[in-house]
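Narrative summary of target 7.
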Amino acid sequence: MPDSSPVAMSRSMNRLSMVRSPDDLKKLTIAELQGVADDCRKEVINLVSLNGGHFASSLGVVELTVALHYVYSSPHDKIIWDVGHQAYVHKILTGRREQMQSNRKFGGLAGFPKRAESAHDAFGAGHASTSISAAAGIAVANELAGGNEKVIAIIGDGSMTGGMAFEAMNHLGDLKSDVLVILNDNQMAISSNTGALRHHMVNLTLNKSYNRARKLVWKSLSLFNNGLGEKAKIAVRKIEEGVKAALTPGAFFEALGLRYFGPIDGHNMDQLVKALKEMQALPNPKLLHVITTKGKGFRPAEENQCKWHAHNGGFDTTTGKLLKTADTSPPPKYQEVFGEALVELALKDRTIVAITAAMPSGTSLDLFQNALPNRFYDVGIAEPHAVTFAAGLASQGFKPVFAVYSTFLQRGYDQLIHDVALQNLQVVFAIDRAGLVGEDGPTHHGAFDLSWLHAVPGLVIMAPADEQELRDMLYTALYELNCPVAIRYPRGNGTGMSLLKNFTSLPVGKGVIVKEGSGLALLCMGTMTQKALEVAAILEQEGIDATVANMRFLKPFDTRMVEELASRSTHFAVLEENSMIGGLGSAVIDHLNTKGLNRPVLKIALPDAFVTHGHINDLYRAIGFDTPTMTEKIKLFYRGGQK
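Modeled conformation, tokenized:
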């Protein structure tokens, strides 16, 4: 019979409040651990319903997180979360529960593990497929220092589709280091997983013969750890290897040098604790396959895991219905304008192909996927492969469009140079989330793309000022150019302007004057054009008549416009939502110097630093990127207050 004493009842009602650190979990029973897990799940649902954040992934690893902290001893043992967006429960259990209301807010907790935030965050994350590499490095450091820490890498949510994960496992198997890799298998990234590995894992979990035989393996494992003699251990090991080799589901990982165990139910606390304790006693690399449900415990998220991967908050914690409805529909997002335009063009052109790296909904390529599934390719979290895959298509006369977040394209930079630009292949890079993105912070800010793209020979780089320019730039990239092209656009909604039915070709490498003035020239590109017009309007009230030039293209650069502006302007100010180093401002200064045109140039750009997380307006104010601060800087600069 369950214990119904007052003490037991009190403990059940305050399960999570008893946990101030992971050490407190070790005092609890398995039943009480499940109670803590239930409370953590409620905590995450309430938290995200109010403040927004990553959601379904954290719900899926609640029991696993509790079990990990029960069995292992963080921060002595190193627990490494891949991507890190599923680490909310980890933060709650490691002394940050009271601070979680500040999660992803300016000055508050980060939405991902962050080493500077807590000793329990063994390795920072934000991008996928990094955990096993980091774990291998930490394990080797431990060996070199003579330590006894255990190292655990939790990878899932599509991260196993990334090539870096395979590279790491291949090396780890050779190192023979004591690392536990936990494969959190929920068959999802942000959208459904893709690729042959996904089918392999599905077949594995459904293999009845293996699921019967693995019980024998687990029994042999228990015997292995309970004092068998050396000959008996060898015999047990051979039985285990024979079962696995015969049925093959774990053979892939075994071939890489990781002993494979599982799959087990990732929501069964008893199974998890038992398995983790067994893993704790085993040396060398091993992989525990855990089956979880993304969004577990919140029905709307279980039924629509893609939609609930992350949420902006403001929903009912039972039904998932939004608590507030905006009076008017917001303008379409830039990504939606792009997705619709690409479908419109592809319906008339069989050579257009769309590529994503596990982000069909995040880039609005799900519109293309639904309309033209035979020309849509999701390569998984494998940006380097995506770039070279696109290059292969382009080499055969197709027009591949790779839609990717700015910060994720960084991972394919070598392929962009070596496989695309060097061969002058017509690949269109639709670069989403350019500039600051807000609450996701420095791992996701598109702060550097203009700088590192600028250095690539033969690459055309452009940025639209509004939705119509985005449509026209896509058309220009596909039909007026025969070379690599990058189009960068921000996260969020457009201006709400009316769009033309037809597409227009833009003159390549040519900017446009959007406001005439004299004395001061404001140069910008992309959505900074709207900001420059706001600044110019305020300056005009103070007697400064500024020209505003939308440069449109960083490469090729409109040198003629810059020279013409220099002939009638005494000062230049360049506004760009990109790093201070190497972008539009650098291009303006370089050309003026080359031509011997002595004009002072003020660069207003993102600082040479990693910008923190928070609401976009808070970030703008913090770095002096809000309109009033920009205006004051430019006014002082123009009037000689600072140069």
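The longest strand covers residues 569-579.
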